[in-house]
Amino acid sequence: MPLPGAYDVVTYPYHSGGSILSLPPDVIEKRIGMHDYGAIKDFRAWAQPEKVLEQIFSGDPYEIKGMWIQTANPIACTGMEPKKWRDAIKKLNLTVCVDLFMTPTAMLCDVILPAATFLEKDSLKAWWVPLQAIKKVVEVEDCKSDIEINLEFCKRFMKDFPYDNVHELFDTLL
Protein backbone atom coordinates (compact mmCIF):
# COMPACT_ATOMS: atom_id res chain seq x y z
CA MET A 1 0.00 0.00 0.00
CA PRO A 2 1.64 3.27 -1.08
CA LEU A 3 1.80 5.88 1.65
CA PRO A 4 1.33 9.51 0.56
CA GLY A 5 4.59 11.41 1.02
CA ALA A 6 6.41 8.33 2.30
CA TYR A 7 8.88 8.23 -0.55
CA ASP A 8 11.15 11.17 0.20
CA VAL A 9 13.98 8.69 0.44
CA VAL A 10 17.19 7.87 -1.35
CA THR A 11 16.98 5.07 -3.90
CA TYR A 12 19.68 2.45 -4.08
CA PRO A 13 22.39 2.88 -5.34
CA TYR A 14 21.98 6.53 -4.38
CA HIS A 15 21.20 8.18 -7.68
CA SER A 16 18.13 8.78 -9.77
CA GLY A 17 19.23 7.08 -12.99
CA GLY A 18 19.96 3.42 -13.59
CA SER A 19 18.96 2.23 -10.16
CA ILE A 20 17.23 -1.04 -9.37
CA LEU A 21 14.57 0.73 -7.32
CA SER A 22 13.08 4.01 -8.40
CA LEU A 23 10.66 6.48 -6.96
CA PRO A 24 7.24 6.68 -8.64
CA PRO A 25 7.16 9.58 -11.17
CA ASP A 26 4.53 11.56 -9.21
CA VAL A 27 6.68 11.29 -6.07
CA ILE A 28 9.84 12.39 -7.90
CA GLU A 29 8.13 15.69 -8.68
CA LYS A 30 7.33 16.23 -4.98
CA ARG A 31 10.90 15.84 -3.71
CA ILE A 32 11.80 18.81 -1.53
CA GLY A 33 14.22 21.11 -3.37
CA MET A 34 13.76 19.18 -6.63
CA HIS A 35 13.17 22.28 -8.75
CA ASP A 36 15.67 24.51 -6.95
CA TYR A 37 18.82 22.39 -7.09
CA GLY A 38 20.03 20.69 -10.27
CA ALA A 39 22.13 18.10 -8.47
CA ILE A 40 19.03 16.83 -6.69
CA LYS A 41 16.90 16.88 -9.80
CA ASP A 42 19.36 15.19 -12.12
CA PHE A 43 21.65 13.10 -9.94
CA ARG A 44 20.67 12.42 -6.34
CA ALA A 45 17.27 11.02 -5.39
CA TRP A 46 16.99 12.82 -2.10
CA ALA A 47 15.58 16.00 -0.65
CA GLN A 48 17.68 19.12 -0.12
CA PRO A 49 18.30 19.40 3.66
CA GLU A 50 17.95 23.17 4.09
CA LYS A 51 14.69 23.12 2.12
CA VAL A 52 13.45 20.26 4.33
CA LEU A 53 14.25 22.37 7.38
CA GLU A 54 12.25 25.31 5.96
CA GLN A 55 9.31 23.06 5.10
CA ILE A 56 9.15 21.45 8.56
CA PHE A 57 8.30 24.88 9.98
CA SER A 58 6.22 26.26 7.09
CA GLY A 59 4.24 23.14 6.16
CA ASP A 60 4.30 24.41 2.57
CA PRO A 61 3.57 22.77 0.14
CA TYR A 62 2.79 19.88 2.50
CA GLU A 63 3.36 19.09 6.17
CA ILE A 64 6.32 16.94 7.13
CA LYS A 65 5.39 14.67 10.04
CA GLY A 66 8.43 12.42 10.34
CA MET A 67 12.04 12.02 9.36
CA TRP A 68 14.38 9.10 8.71
CA ILE A 69 17.96 10.24 9.40
CA GLN A 70 20.58 7.81 8.19
CA THR A 71 24.32 8.32 8.70
CA ALA A 72 23.83 12.06 9.11
CA ASN A 73 24.14 14.33 12.11
CA PRO A 74 22.56 17.72 11.37
CA ILE A 75 22.80 18.84 15.00
CA ALA A 76 26.60 18.58 15.23
CA CYS A 77 27.99 18.16 11.72
CA THR A 78 25.95 18.56 8.56
CA GLY A 79 23.39 21.19 9.54
CA MET A 80 24.19 24.88 9.22
CA GLU A 81 21.75 25.82 11.99
CA PRO A 82 21.98 23.24 14.80
CA LYS A 83 19.43 24.93 17.09
CA LYS A 84 16.92 25.12 14.26
CA TRP A 85 17.53 21.43 13.43
CA ARG A 86 17.01 20.54 17.10
CA ASP A 87 13.70 22.41 17.13
CA ALA A 88 12.67 20.78 13.83
CA ILE A 89 13.39 17.25 15.07
CA LYS A 90 11.42 17.95 18.26
CA LYS A 91 8.50 19.28 16.21
CA LEU A 92 8.05 16.08 14.17
CA ASN A 93 5.70 13.25 15.21
CA LEU A 94 8.28 10.53 14.56
CA THR A 95 12.03 10.55 14.01
CA VAL A 96 14.23 7.55 13.31
CA CYS A 97 18.02 7.62 13.30
CA VAL A 98 20.28 4.94 11.80
CA ASP A 99 23.90 5.46 12.81
CA LEU A 100 27.06 3.88 14.14
CA PHE A 101 27.24 6.27 17.09
CA MET A 102 24.95 7.90 19.62
CA THR A 103 25.25 11.33 18.04
CA PRO A 104 23.55 14.49 19.33
CA THR A 105 20.98 14.02 16.55
CA ALA A 106 20.35 10.38 17.50
CA MET A 107 19.78 11.42 21.13
CA LEU A 108 16.78 13.50 20.01
CA CYS A 109 15.17 10.76 17.90
CA ASP A 110 12.29 8.52 18.90
CA VAL A 111 13.86 5.37 17.45
CA ILE A 112 17.58 4.62 17.09
CA LEU A 113 18.70 1.72 14.90
CA PRO A 114 22.35 0.70 15.37
CA ALA A 115 24.16 0.41 12.04
CA ALA A 116 26.97 -2.02 11.34
CA THR A 117 30.50 -0.83 10.56
CA PHE A 118 32.31 -1.95 7.41
CA LEU A 119 33.81 -4.83 9.42
CA GLU A 120 30.33 -6.09 10.35
CA LYS A 121 28.69 -6.31 6.93
CA ASP A 122 28.87 -7.83 3.49
CA SER A 123 28.64 -5.16 0.85
CA LEU A 124 29.74 -3.88 -2.53
CA LYS A 125 31.64 -0.71 -3.29
CA ALA A 126 31.52 0.52 -6.84
CA TRP A 127 31.95 4.29 -6.65
CA TRP A 128 35.15 6.20 -7.40
CA VAL A 129 37.07 2.92 -7.71
CA PRO A 130 36.69 -0.38 -9.52
CA LEU A 131 34.16 -2.77 -8.02
CA GLN A 132 35.17 -4.02 -4.58
CA ALA A 133 33.61 -6.64 -2.35
CA ILE A 134 33.38 -6.00 1.38
CA LYS A 135 33.33 -9.21 3.41
CA LYS A 136 32.04 -9.30 6.97
CA VAL A 137 34.72 -10.35 9.49
CA VAL A 138 32.75 -10.01 12.72
CA GLU A 139 29.10 -10.00 13.74
CA VAL A 140 27.79 -7.69 16.45
CA GLU A 141 24.43 -8.51 17.96
CA ASP A 142 21.62 -6.03 17.26
CA CYS A 143 23.52 -4.23 14.45
CA LYS A 144 22.49 -4.41 10.79
CA SER A 145 24.07 -2.83 7.77
CA ASP A 146 22.38 0.19 6.22
CA ILE A 147 21.43 -1.93 3.24
CA GLU A 148 19.87 -4.62 5.46
CA ILE A 149 17.87 -2.02 7.37
CA ASN A 150 16.65 -0.40 4.15
CA LEU A 151 15.86 -3.77 2.59
CA GLU A 152 13.72 -4.81 5.58
CA PHE A 153 11.95 -1.46 5.43
CA CYS A 154 11.24 -1.94 1.71
CA LYS A 155 9.91 -5.46 2.24
CA ARG A 156 7.36 -4.11 4.69
CA PHE A 157 6.15 -1.23 2.52
CA MET A 158 6.38 -2.75 -0.97
CA LYS A 159 4.30 -5.89 -1.36
CA ASP A 160 6.13 -6.90 -4.56
CA PHE A 161 9.66 -6.10 -3.35
CA PRO A 162 11.83 -8.51 -5.36
CA TYR A 163 14.62 -9.31 -2.85
CA ASP A 164 14.52 -11.48 0.26
CA ASN A 165 18.02 -10.58 1.43
CA VAL A 166 21.01 -8.38 0.60
CA HIS A 167 22.81 -11.17 -1.27
CA GLU A 168 19.96 -11.38 -3.79
CA LEU A 169 20.22 -7.63 -4.21
CA PHE A 170 23.99 -7.87 -4.72
CA ASP A 171 23.52 -10.59 -7.32
CA THR A 172 21.24 -8.26 -9.28
CA LEU A 173 23.70 -5.39 -9.00
CA LEU A 174 26.57 -7.59 -10.19
Report on the architecture of this protein:
The protein has 174 residues and is an alpha/beta fold. Among the domains are: 1-47, no CATH class; 116-174, no CATH class. The chain has seven helices and five strands, in the order αααβαβαβββαα. The protein has a three-stranded parallel β-sheet with strand order 1-2-3. A two-stranded antiparallel sheet has the order 4-5. Helix 5 (104-108) links the parallel strand 2 and strand 3 (111-114). The longest helix is centred in the C-terminal third of the chain and has 12 residues, at 146-157. The radius of gyration is 17 Å and the shape is globular.
Q: Please, how many helices? A: 7
CA radius of gyration: 17 Å
Q: What's the assembly state of these chains?
A: single chain
Averaged pLDDT: 82
Q: What strand line-up does the widest sheet have?
A: 1-2-3
The 3D shape can be described as globular
- The low-confidence parts are 1-18
Number of strands: 5
Largest sheet: 3 strands, parallel
Judged by helices, strands and strand pairing, the structural class is alpha/beta
Question: Which percent range describes the beta-strand content?
Answer: 5-15%
Distance between the termini: 29 Å
**Which range best describes the helical content: under 10%, 10-25%, 25-40%, 40-55%, 55-70% or over 70%?**
25-40%
Run of helices and strands: HHHEHEHEEEHH
